[in-house]
Write a structure and sequence with these properties.
With 105 residues, the chain is of the alpha+beta class. The chain contains 2 helices and 4 strands; from the N terminus they run βαβαββ. Strands 1-2-4-3 form a 4-stranded mixed β-sheet. α1 links the parallel β1 and β2. The protein is globular and about 45 Å long.
Length: 105
């Protein structure tokens, strides 16, 4: 659960064939702007501990890890069956500048 004043980025992904083209950065920045537009001062997210590529992106964009905890969700497999995915996630946050027209670069 997010602390008061925080917006949560959730289930953000870029297809592997489209990675390394700046799309993840654009998606994150657009989500952060929506968070700002709601008057919230912090963006937070959780990323799987072993997802080093995503963790590097978030760190490059200014997110700072503040904890780890187990997480789980249901996901559909290629066979159409729903399975429970259990993992360890790193939680990170970034304070947002709320000035009009401000954005992180």
């Amino acid at each position: 659960m997010s602390p008061r004043g925080a917006g949560t980025l959730w289930q953000l992904a870029v297809l592997p064939a489209l990675q390394s083209r700046g799309l993840g950065t654009l998606l994150i920045r657009a989500a952060e702007q929506r968070i700002r537009n709601h008057g919230l001062s912090t963006a937070e997210l959780a990323v799987e501990d072993g997802n080093l590529r995503a963790r590097a992106l978030y760190e490059r964009l200014g997110y700072v890890a503040y904890g780890r905890k187990p997480d789980a969700w249901d996901e559909e497999g290629p066979d159409g069956l729903i399975r429970r995915h259990e993992t360890m996630c790193v939680h990170a946050k970034e304070p947002l500048n709320l000035s009009p027209g401000a954005g992180s670069s």
